[in-house]
Amino acid sequence: MPTWQQLRDIKLSEFTDAADGWGKVSSRSNVDKDRVDNEMLGRIRGTQEGDTAKAAVADLDQLSRNYQYLHTECGLIRTALNGLASELAAPQRKLKQALEDAENLKFTVHPDGSVEYPAGGENLIDKKPVPGGTAQGSQFGFLSPTGPPLQRYPNSPLLNPPGQFPALGGGNPNQAKAQAVANSIAAAVREAAEIDGRYNDALAQLKAEPGLKVDNKTLADAASDTKAMQNAAGKYLDDDKIPHGKSPKENVEWWNGLTQEQRDEYATLYPASVGALDGLPSAFRDDLNRVVFAETKARYEVELAGMPPEPKPKLVSHGARGGMVYSQEWLDWHNKYEGRRDDLKDKLAGMNAIETRLEQRPGMPEGYLLKFDGEKDDGRVILAVGNPDTADHTSVYVPGTTTKLEEIEDNLKRTDALYGNAKRLDPNASFSTITWFDYNAPNHLGEAMLNKYGDSGAPTLRHFMGGLETAQGGPEKSHTTLMGHSYGSTVAGMATKLESGPIADDIIAVGSPGMQVEHASDLKVGKEHVWAMGGGFDDILVRQGGRLVGHGEGGNIPTDEDFGGNIMKSGAKDHGDFWTDKSSVENQAAVIAGKYDKVTLD
Questions:
Q1: Is the pLDDT of residue 124 over 90?
Q2: φ/ψ (deg, to 5) at 371
């Protein structure tokens, strides 16, 4: 328990000055991590092979982890020190006011916080002055909500010595004033002790192993450290102040109302929440979501490594009756671990693909991780190739049925192919191609017959498209193309119906089972800016199946002439061949680049 003297004398500026120092280390570590990831790792992996290259990559991976950990932990210390200074200011003001009151009243405040007051008033029985005394700070509820303590309890036997009741002669008027001062001092010290205890407990967890060789366990623990600091600093920085569920414009207004230090602190404490806010700068969102990604990946790897191996033998003899049965040991392991083990392996496979793509490679721009969630549904990820905030041309690709985090690599390759082909068409322009997987995609064709996946995904997609426009500075700043493959085109079509106004400049439907509109003109971009392409074999089945289940309003799907859009030439042999077939990807890229004269129509 701190003393009132310590609370009085503490210099809060020393905490904020120290916080500035920790903040600089945190920011510098983040910059250095970006250099390792973008300027070193990707180039070595993309250009070098052999044992020496592998050893260099391992060392750089470790260095990146170390910088990641420093960025997070130093940021947490900065937030703790600023939060401590901010919260201690109130009880310190309360204490100093109480001490000033005591001085003005000529009371004496003792080291233990008790307040000595002089004689005052007179006893109506013998006319003698009522003697002075000492008031001890109370931790109980003898405080008036509207005025000084004791006004509501003038006759309390706990607060008035025998013989001094008002009924017997009025009492010492200094007593109530001294009690009020003593109570204020005690309350200020108790409040400071509670604040100090909260932050002390959280700071005690911020410890690194000697040598700072950050392994998976250490990196995973950083997430626990962040949670502990959220609990400690919740009164200083409240998650409820983050504009959850608001429009991109409201997100930006909240963001612009923060100081740079407040931005850094919200980013440190709530990286997932702030990193998911549409409309905020992509570079900033990327920083936050990489933190979430790294800590999630480390946690998965720690959990997987901690699982016991599959027991052997799996089958044992059934005994006298013959035959084989599963051993009880294997059944116990199967029920507890096997499903989760397979789930973790699958997720880590997808995360490895994301991690590889985030490393800048020769001839390709930086990757921007605009969202990541490993747990929701089949996972969620939004990854941009090139910065969409500054791109001359931006495309958003929405994948379709069976999309999962573990299989995201093929979708990332598709946006890579789109970027490369578009850039070749216009080398002087800047491009950003985005993989948008932020909805619960159907897991099989049976689920793809339902609208519910589009009903939930379409508002999220429209919100994201609005966030792109906000971050870019307006609809005229970037030529934007929305592309949906398979059920992803259904989601894109449904997103256009939610509000008035276009969702993009051009819309491409690839292998579409229907867009929930009857004609291209219903997509609000003008039918001349609606593009479709179909392939052979199972793609025909997908498109016609969508027509049968009603995904095409009035029975129309985008590859129908009556739909009214531009039907592009494609040599795709099946439903997934649109990004390996040369004519298909070149036509898509021509639309993305705004080179409409380069599009070959069917």
A1: no
A2: -170, 145
